[in-house]
Amino acid sequence: SLPDFSKPFVLCSDASKFSLGAVLMQEDENGFQHPVAFASRKLGPTEIKYSVCEKEALGILFAITHFKNYLYGSEFIVYCDQQSLSKIKTQKDPTSRIARWFLTLQEYTYKIIHKPGRLNFMADYLSRAKYPKEDSENDKEIHEVHAVDADCTEFEFKLCSVPTEELICKQKNDSYCNNIKLKLESNFEFSPKSPKFFIKNGLLLCYRNDTGRHNSKAKLVVPQSLVHNVLQLCHDNNSVAHAGLSRTLKRVKINYFWHGLYGTVKNYVASCHSCIQRRGFSKNSKAPIQKIPTADYPFQKCAFDAVGPLVTSTNGNKWLIVISDYFTRYAEAYPVQNIQSSTVAKVLLDFISRHGIMETLHSDRGSNFLSEAMMEVYKKLGISKRHTLSYNPRSNGVVEKLNKTLIDSLSHLVTQNQENWCEQIPLALMAFRNAYHRTVHEKPSYLLYGRDIVMPYDIIFSDPSRTYSDTPSYAQQLVNRLQSSFALVKDHLERAADDNTKYNKELPKTKQISVGDLVYLHTPRVKVHTSKKLAMQNQGPFRVVNQFSPVVFEIQHINQPTNKQTVHLNRIVKVMERKVFPDVHDDEINPTSQNEIVSQNNMPSEEEIQKLYPPYTLPYKDLGDDQQILFRINDDTSTPTIPPVTNVSDRNQSSNVIQVQAPVIPPLKTPAVLTQRRCPYDLRPRDINGFVTNK
Fold first, then answer.
1. In a domain, 595, yes or no
2. What is the domain-level CATH number for residue 233?
C-alpha cells in the first residue's frame, strides 16, 4: 500500500547467517498491517562472523537507515526476534560495536519490541533469500585487459535494418554484383555450375543448393563492402558464440552468397582473436628436442630444484632441496624448513664444501634461485647461472627426473602419517646412488668413488677383489677404473643426447615462427576465483621481436611495449593474419578462352603503344622491373564495359590474382597495361612481344 504519513509506521527486521531483511508496514482502519516497502541485503565477509545478537542489531541499523526518508521525524515501532535488544537502552555494558550502532540511531524516535520469529515471518523470509555469489572489489585481480568492440551491439541493429535502397546501392558500386546484373540484363548464358542469379525489387539474389536442404531459399549476393559485417553477425555475435568453421559456414550459406565464400569464412574463423585465446594448446605440435652440451668431468655442471611443500616433518621441515651432477648423476638432498634465498645459499655452500665449485648451475625460474642475493653468491663463486624458460620444466630434466625417483622411494619408506620423511632421505639417496643409471650405464657412486659401495645385500658375499696388497696398487687400480669409466660415461652421454634428437623425426611438422609474426602465449595459470574450464588459454597478442635459437624467442606485447618475455616455441600460438578478400570475378561467370589472349601477329607495334598509351611501371618486384604486360579484349561490335578498379593499396598484396587498369577503350584491338596484381580475366604475364614470361 502507499504510505500515509499521518499514521505511525511499523518496522520489522530480522537477520540470518548470511543476510538481513526488513519490512516497512502501516495499519489500516481495521487494524491489519499492510507492507509499504521491502529491503534486504547480503552480509559481508566480516559481518558473517558477528554473533547472533550483533547480527540482529545490525539488522535494526540497516532497516532504520534504509527507510530513513519515511521514519525521520516521526515515532515508530521496531519489531525483532532478539529479546535482549528490546532492553538495549537500559543495558549497562553493551558491546562496543552494538553501542556504536545505537549511538548513530539517537536522532530517531523509536521503540524496540520483541516479536517471536514465527510471527515475524515476512522479515524472516527476506533474510533467508538466496543471493548470487559476488566477489568483493578487493578480491578482484586483473591479469589482462580484453578489448571489446564498443560498436558491436549498435552494429548488429544497424546491419539487421539495412534499407533495401542501401543494399541496391552497395551492389551497384560492387564490380562483381554490377557485372552480373549487366549480364542478366543482356540475357547472358551462365555456366551450369554457377548459381542461378535473378533480380527482385532491384536486389541481386541467387539460388544455390549448397546447404544440403531440398527447399533452398533465395540468397542475397553480398557486396564486398558488407562481407565483413555478415561474418561478424554469423561468427562474432553473442547468439552464435564464436562457432567453428563448419557451423559458421553453414550459417552463412543459408542466407548469403559471394565469390570465394569458403576461403573468406575459413580465414575469418582461423584469424578470430577470441577463438585463438580460447583455443587449447596442441600437444602434437611440439618443438624439436635440442641437443644440450654434455659435461666433461664430475661436478662441472650441476642442477638443483626444490620439492614441496611436503607434510611438516617431526623436525619441522616442509621442503626438500635436491642437487644433481650432470656427469655422474650423483645426487644430494637437503630437508629444509623453507626455500628462502638465505636457506638456498646455505645448502649450496654445504654442497660446494664437499664437492667443489661447479662451472655451471642450472635451475628453474624460482625467485629463491634468481634473487639479487643469490645472483651475488653466484658471481662471487664464479658460477655461470642458467635457468629454464617459464612452463618448460623438461629443459631441467636431470633434476626433475631425480625428484620423481626420490619421491617414489620415500613413498615406500614413510609411515602412514608421513611425518618421518626426513629420516628416510639418506636411505632413498643410498638406493639412488647405488643403482645403475640408464643414461650413464653405471652407478653414480661408482663414478664418484671409483669403487662399489658395500650395500647390505653384499654382506653375505665377500668379494676377493676388494682386498689390495698395498696402497699404490689400490691407487693405480682406482685411476684405471675411473679413466675407463669416464670414457664410457662421456660416450654414453653423447649417445643419449643423440637418441633424444632422434625423436624429432617422429614429431609432426614444427610450426614456423619468424621475427615479426603475431602470436599468442599459452598461459595455463588463471586468475583467482575463476575456473580454468572457462578461462582463456592464451594471452596476447604479442609480436616476435627476436629469436635466440630454433626454439627460444623473445616476444613483446602489442599494447604494452614494456612487457617482453623470453619463451619456448611450445608455448607460442601463431596468429593467422586476417585477409581482406578483394572483389573478384568468378571464373564460372566470366570464363576466358585462350583465343582472347593477344597473339603475336595481332599485337600492335611498340611505337604505336608508346604513342597512344604512356607506359605504366609495375609496382611489384616479382613481376620484373619496369616490365609491361599486355592483353586485349575481344573485338566486339560494341565497346566492352570494364568494371571500375577499386583502391587496393591497403589490402593484402600477396594475392596471386591480377588486377588491371585500362585506359579509355577504343572499339578495336585495345592494349591495357598491368598496374596491379589482380585482373578479372584469365591472364598470364607476357613480354612486349606477346610471349608468355616466367616472371
1. no
2. 1.10.340.70
Does 452 lie in the same domain as 324?
yes
Percent of the chain with pLDDT over 90: 1
Q: Is residue 640 part of a domain?
A: no
d(CA 461, CA 681): 92
Under 8 Å between Cβ of 54 and 94: no
308: left (phi over 0), alpha (psi -120 to 50) or beta: left
Using alpha carbons only, how large is the chain's radius of gyration in Å? 41
Q: Which residues pair with 437 in a beta bridge?
A: 442
Please say whether the beta carbons of 277 and 270 come within 8 A.
no
User: Residue 569: which CATH number?
Assistant: 2.30.30.140
Cell numbers at 663, concatenated: 585506359
pLDDT tens for 346-405 read 888 888 888 888 888 888 888 788 888 888 888 888 888 877 777 766 667 778 888 888
* Tens of pLDDT, residues 241-254: 777 777 888 888 87
One domain for residues 387 and 267: no
User: How many angstroms from the chain centroid is the CA of residue 118?
Assistant: 54
Q: What count of Cα atoms within 13 Å lies in the side-chain half-sphere of residue 90?
A: 6
Q: What is the mean pLDDT of the chain?
A: 70
For the segment 259-279, the average pLDDT, to the nearest whole number, is: 78
CA–CA distance, 500 with 287 (Å, rounded to integer): 12
Strand pairing class (384-387; 360-363) = parallel
CB atoms within 10 A of CB 398: 19
Highest mean pLDDT among 56-70, 77-91, 634-648: 56-70
String of DSSP letters for 336-368: ES---HHHHHHHHHHHHHHH---SEEEE-S-HH
What mean pLDDT is predicted for residues 282-288? 59
**Distance in angstroms (rounded) separating the CA atoms of residues 32 and 382:** 90
Beta bridge partners of 26: 34
Exposed (0-12), middle (13-18) or buried (19+): which is 610, by Cβ within 10 Å?
exposed
Residues 562-575 have a mean pLDDT of 78
Residues in the chain: 695
Q: What angle do CA 43, 48, 51 make, to 5 degrees?
A: 125
CA gap 293, 399 in Å, rounded: 16
Residues 444, 306, single domain; the answer is yes
Digit-coded pLDDT (tens) for 516-549? 777 878 776 666 666 666 666 677 778 888 887 7
Same domain, 80 and 169: no
Q: 351 and 444, same structural domain?
A: yes
Q: Which of residues 112, 128, 144 is at a domain's end?
A: 128
DSSP string, 53-72: HHHHHHHHHHHHHHTHHHHT
Q: Determine the average pLDDT of the residues in 653-677.
A: 39
Q: Can you tell me which residue has the cell 677404473? A: 481
pTM of the model: 0.45
Q: Kindly state whether residues 539 and 408 are assigned to the same domain.
A: no
Structural domain boundaries, residue 206:
164-271
SS3 content of the chain, % helix, strand, coil (to 5): 35, 20, 45
Domain check: are 212 and 327 in the same one?
Answer: no
- Going by C-alpha positions, the residue among 106, 8, 97, 107 that lies closest to residue 58 is 97
Segment 668-689 mean pLDDT: 41
> Is residue 350 in a domain?
yes
The 3-state DSSP class for residue 321 equals strand
Whether 596 is in a domain gets the answer no
Spatial separation of the C-alpha atoms in residues 335 and 303, rounded to whole Å: 17
Count of domains for the chain? 4
DSSP state of 617: -
Q: 695 is written with which cell numbers?
A: 616472371
Distance CA 128, CA 17 (A): 8
Residue 261 sits in the same domain as residue 364:
no
Asked whether the predicted pLDDT for residue 65 surpasses 80, the reply is yes
